Amino acid sequence: MRVFLPGLLEGAWVTIEITVLAAVLAVVLAVAAGLARTFAPRPLRWLSVAYIETFRGTSALVQLFWLFFVLPYFGVSLPPLAVAVIGLGLNLGAYGSEVVRGAIQAVPRGQWEAAVALNMSRGAALRRIILPQAFVAMIPPWGNLFIELLKATALVSLITLSDLAFKAQQMNQTTLRTVQIFTIVLVIYLCIAVVITQGMRYLERRAARGMARGRVS
Length: 217
Fold this sequence. Notes:
This protein is mostly helical and 217 residues long. 82% of the residues lie in helices and 0% in strands.
């Protein structure tokens, strides 16, 4: 175990880096696409639908291969880490946009009517009343999406990135200690997933308490 652990932890750090960066990109894209599909003028709505359906309807592996192998034919060569972050971020953002849209639509219509009664603009109502409530509802499904993202990072080993899965395959080929290596890998993935789950639960509790204080005040 001591022989394998340093190399696997090195790969785990790459996996964590990809997960965090792709998650940030995915959240930005999801919010933009979700809002565009819900509120934007028709051309922007069509654009968001095209993005969502393209990345939800095709394989994440094919998307990574397209960015890594096809883009260079158009004169655009990206390093493997950038391909991993962009590819997985685009893929997760498409799924996340539906979470954003669903959470916004789940806010009772009476909240919009109350904002109108207070003479708020649509943008102010969205920012100050609707999105804070929708944010609390988004957290549990986003936690699930982040776990799926963590598992999807194993795909980046196929574009030569030395992530946890790549390191495990490399060590297995040279040592043939399959049971030991992949058991350690399983535990590492599980530990990362537990950290994500607990972090999202903590965020959910904080957000719920913040909403409760807002109602009281």
